[in-house]
């Protein structure tokens, strides 16, 4: 069970309907607790309070809104930045590995030699450079999405979503990056197909998480995510063009 502290937190939501609730459970005595029911939908407001983290993770993989509401609103997940760094490094490593031409080599001996040569040629500098590029792209994506959301919330008179909340939302919804590991380790022949599947899953997770945190229609989520994605590509290309001209 993830740590929750209803007495100290200000805002909780019912994971079923998204309505605000005062606390996640009622405390009758030191050892007797009862999960609170939502006054709007009359279901248990947050059933995940009693669930193991593995069950919650499975529901996240299954793209359940309820699991996202639990993680984003009802849990103190302060160390999400660590997960963010791990995802960033994993994406950079994936890009590093995809830059190698191993698919074209059929002979195992040749493949092994090429593999070793490639690793000899790979420098730490290249990995750091890729990590910096991924960090830059991620920062551009989050910034654009944050400002689009800010405009959306101000226009509709909603509470503005903070940058930290946006960072947390995108970090949690990008956990699909871990799925890149199998093709990096075992079978590189299906890497491109696998990458497409992982990218699709990650985008769907981000759309769902954004819809949950922003409480907006799906059409706006799709518009905002795709605008942020293309702005990210444009910003990165622009940055690379400036670097190329300066060097
Ligand atoms: Zn409810």
Notes on the structure:
There is one protein chain. The protein has 247 residues and is mainly alpha-helical. The protein folds into two domains: 12-73, no CATH class; 80-246, no CATH class. The protein has helices at residues 53-61, 65-73, 80-98, 108-121, 124-156, 163-173, 181-185, 191-214, 218-246; strands spanning 12-13, 20-21, 25-27, 33-35. The strands form two sheets. A two-stranded antiparallel ribbon has the order 1-2. Strands 3-4 form a two-stranded antiparallel sheet. The longest helix has 33 residues, at 124-156. It is globular. It starts with 11 loop residues before the first strand and ends with a helix. Zinc ion (ZN) binds next to loops.
The class by helix and strand makeup works out as mainly alpha
The tally of strands reads 4
Summarize model confidence as the mean pLDDT. 82
Principal-axis shape equals globular
Count, helices = 9
Series of H and E elements:
EEEEHHHHHHHHH
**What composes the largest sheet?**
2 strands, antiparallel
As a percent range, the share of strand residues is under 5%
Strand order of the largest sheet: 1-2
**What's the helical proportion of residues?**
55-70%
